[in-house]
Design brief:
- By secondary structure, this protein is α/β, with parallel strands linked by helices.
- The chain has twelve helices and ten strands.
- About 40% of the residues are buried.
- The model has no long low-confidence stretch (mean pLDDT about 90).
- Helices cover about 45% and strands about 15% of the residues.
- It starts with 7 loop residues before the first strand and ends with a helix.
Length: about 325
């Protein structure tokens, strides 16, 4: 399966030109950064593997992609969550529904003092080994060294694009969950990678970078948001910028991660426009390449939540 060479669109946002790398147009089951992160496993012979073991949220993009990977490789997926809302069990939707349809086994860990990843390492994997099952453990969101394989390919594509457009320097912008994509892109690119912390704060993101790469000179630049946003919570500013982008560019972004990155760019562009109005030149004229990482399956659940909130506000 060849998951590479996605097109680059050019859009205008607040009077500024932004290039968009359309990784959302990769294979539906592996749209965006999960295709890059799981590229290593897609290329591997997993015929001797019985079970893929993963963990995270019941609505994570990685749950859906891991389910597709397990189906392609003809093995089972055991996916562990620390909670599963009764409403979701009764009304399967989004990534959870899609994963169940692909045959995923989604299990809730017993309440305890240890984390889900510790539960998997201390109990699940040893038990599977004892049963004679061959298991491969893939950490939450694909945050592991194996992700570097596919992300280096993405970095190579970005460099080839910049060269074909005669750009000696660009800025690569993308939102971050675990920060895996941004970290490995920065490691393999001569350009600055800028990202924002969507899950946890800047400190959490720096910690994630350090666990994957101790050399801080290879860490991406963190764009600080104007305020603290809590992951998964509904913010009307998120919905409005998402809707604005969809209407003006005909590109649908995801509602969990992308809005924060675009809000950061909106603030930057607004300041640049104000400076321009009084005759001041922008200090940074590097072309911007935004990485659209996909994850649109999650909009199936996020959009109704926003529409209910908007109806209530009105």
């Amino acid at each position: 399966m060849e998951l590479r060479n996605t097109p680059v669109d050019v859009i205008e946002f607040l009077g500024h030109q932004v290039y968009v790398k359309r990784d959302d147009l990769l294979d539906v089951a592996f749209s965006g950064n999960k295709a890059r992160k799981f590229y290593h496993f897609l290329q591997q012979d997993l015929s001797q593997v019985d079970i893929l073991v993963g963990h995270g949220s019941a609505q994570a993009n990685s749950l859906y992609s891991l389910s597709a990977l397990a189906k392609i490789k003809q093995c089972q997926l055991y996916y562990y969550v620390d909670h599963l809302p009764q409403y979701l069990i009764d009304n399967p939707q989004g990534n959870y529904r899609a994963a169940l349809e692909l045959g995923a086994n989604i299990m809730v860990t017993e309440p305890s003092e240890i984390t889900v990843i510790e539960y998997i390492q201390q109990y699940v994997l040893p038990a599977l080994t004892t049963q004679g099952q061959v298991a491969v453990f893939i950490p939450e969101g694909g945050r592991c060294q194996y992700a570097e394989t596919g992300l280096k390919i993405l970095a190579d594509e970005i460099m080839a694009w910049a060269e074909s457009n005669s750009y000696a320097d660009i800025r690569v912008v993308l939102p971050a969950g675990t920060g895996t994509t941004a970290l490995f892109l920065q490691k393999h690119l001569p350009f600055e990678v800028q990202t924002c912390a969507c899950v946890g704060g800047d400190g959490y993101l720096k910690q994630q970078f350090s666990e994957l790469c101790a050399d801080e000179s290879l860490h991406p630049t963190i764009m600080t948001a104007d305020k603290k946003y809590h992951f998964g919570k509904l913010y009307l500013a998120f919905y409005h910028i998402w809707a604005q982008l969809k209407q003006t560019t005909n590109i649908e972004f995801d509602l969990l991660y992308d809005p924060l990155a675009w809000l950061c760019l909106q603030r930057e562009f607004s300041i640049a426009n104000e400076n321009s109005a009084v005759g001041l030149e922008s200090s940074d004229n590097r072309p911007i390449l935004y990485i659209h990482q996909g994850g649109l399956q999650g909009n199936e659940t996020m959009l109704p939540r926003y529409l209910r909130k908007l109806a209530f506000v009105k």
